[in-house]
Design brief:
Blueprint lengths: L9 H13 L15 H13 L3 E8 L2 E8 L10 E6 L16 E2 L2 E3 L3 H20 L8 E6 L7 H9 L4 E4 L7 E5 L1 E10 L14 H21 L10 E9 L9 E10 L5 H18 L4 E10 L2 E2 L5 H14 L5 E4 L5 H6 L3 E4 L4 E2 L7 E3 H18 L2
Helix pairs in contact: 1-3, 3-9, 5-6, 7-9
The structure holds zinc ion.
Length: 390
């Protein structure tokens, strides 16, 4: 289809975006006492109902909700289905002068969450409304998923992946309208080294856990340099790691009995949890062979997969066609250094790509989104649904 027979209502989209920014939806797991998604979820549910979608609200915890709107296809279950995904929560507002202003100046809407990712949420609502208003009949189902808690533990998309399925998904995290096909994963490790507490003068009794962690860190530094020498992924570069937190000892005059280190390992597509963990365990095993008093323990505290979707997958092909039509040129294929909920949907067997608007200031003191790019995104989403769910 080359002629689009629907129209995005730009003033509805802009008003919706401003309304969304004005609703505080800071994630209470990041900033205790924050409201979470209950209020913004109610707004989104009303907006979905007014476009005639079938709406489901799932309460995940007090004040934490997902809202799902479904535009049923005429051949529901037989033609291809598509999911759009945006998170409703935001990070905190520390250091922001007027975080919930929703001010519109020179084509930009300002405020916490404007780019990450209330612009995308507004684009999804405006796109669904345009399809409904034009009475466009899709073959397969279109699912709008507005989710909780992406900024902390992804309670929202984890629940969506359990309850719903689709043939493909578009996660609308900001990409400056590039077609993002890959991003890194991450693993959080805790490493403990053990010593023996003793008075600082009693060198025959004391075993120093902090000095032993030093040995581990020396080897970790070598591994870090080695990771960056490895063949980079074409879209996300080489793997990396860093030591984020360290703590140990109890008093300056006592041999430290315990030292704790947290390491973050960023993985690239093709790397596994097992492979990355083996590399760290090997360091510990080698140090223990060299000195029997070296004792340490490695624990995986959290991990998330990297994302990669092939260039010839059907959702990438559909997005390439719609981005080209809207932007007048073949879109750049990009990779993101940060992680997104897209990896959870991909892990659930849904082919998932990431496309979102232009803006700046994610997680910082001045955040804005470019309204024209949000309009572009709405056209791209609606047109992709028409092509993909035909
Ligand atoms: Zn985000």
């Amino acid at each position: 289809m080359d002629k689009m027979n629907f129209k995005i209502d730009e003033s509805y989209l802009t008003e919706t975006l401003i309304d969304l920014v004005r609703i505080n939806s800071c994630n209470p797991s990041l900033t205790p006492g924050s409201p979470g998604e209950a209020q913004i979820g109610a707004y989104v549910a009303r907006a979905m109902e007014s476009c005639g979608l079938e709406v489901h609200t799932h309460e995940l915890a007090p004040s934490r909700v997902n809202v799902v709107g479904i535009l049923r296809g005429s051949r529901s279950g037989k033609a291809r289905s598509l999911m759009w995904n945006a998170h409703m929560d935001t990070v905190g507002v520390g250091g922001m002068a007027d975080p919930f202003s929703g001010d519109l100046r020179a084509g930009k809407v300002y405020g916490r969450g404007s780019q990450d990712m209330k612009g995308s949420l507004a684009a999804m609502l405006a796109a669904a409304r345009a399809l409904a208003d034009a009475r466009i009949e899709l073959g397969g189902d279109l699912l709008l998923t507005a989710v909780a808690d992406e900024e902390y533990a992804s309670l929202g998309t984890t629940d969506i992946a359990r309850r719903y399925h689709a043939d493909a998904a578009i996660v609308t995290e900001p990409t400056d309208l590039a077609l993002c096909r890959a991003h890194r994963g991450f693993i959080i490790y805790k490493v403990e080294t053990y010593g023996r507490a003793a008075h600082g003068s009693r060198y025959k009794e004391g075993i120093d856990a902090i000095m032993r962690m030093g040995r581990f860190l020396g080897k970790l530094d070598e591994l870090e340099a080695d990771l960056r020498q490895r063949a980079p992924h074409e879209l996300v570069g080489p793997p990396s790691l860093h030591a984020g937190l360290i703590k140990g000892g109890s008093e300056v005059s006592i041999y430290a009995a315990l030292c704790e280190l947290h390491v973050e390992r960023r993985t690239i597509p093709g790397e596994t949890l097992e492979g990355a963990t083996r590399e760290l365990q090997q360091i510990i095993d080698e140090l223990a062979r060299a000195d029997p008093t070296f004792r340490a323990r490695l624990e995986v505290q959290m991990w998330r997969s990297p994302l990669e979707i092939p260039a010839d997958s059907s959702i990438v092909q559909a997005l390439e066609a719609t981005l080209t039509q809207r932007l007048g040129a073949l879109p750049a294929h990009s990779g993101a250094t940060f992680w997104t909920d897209a990896a959870l949907l991909a892990d659930a067997g849904i082919e998932t790509a990431v496309v979102g608007p232009i803006g700046a200031g994610l997680h910082s003191a001045e955040e804005w989104v470019d309204v024209a790019s949000v309009v572009d995104l709405a056209y791209i989403l609606a047109d992709t649904a028409v092509r993909f769910c035909a």
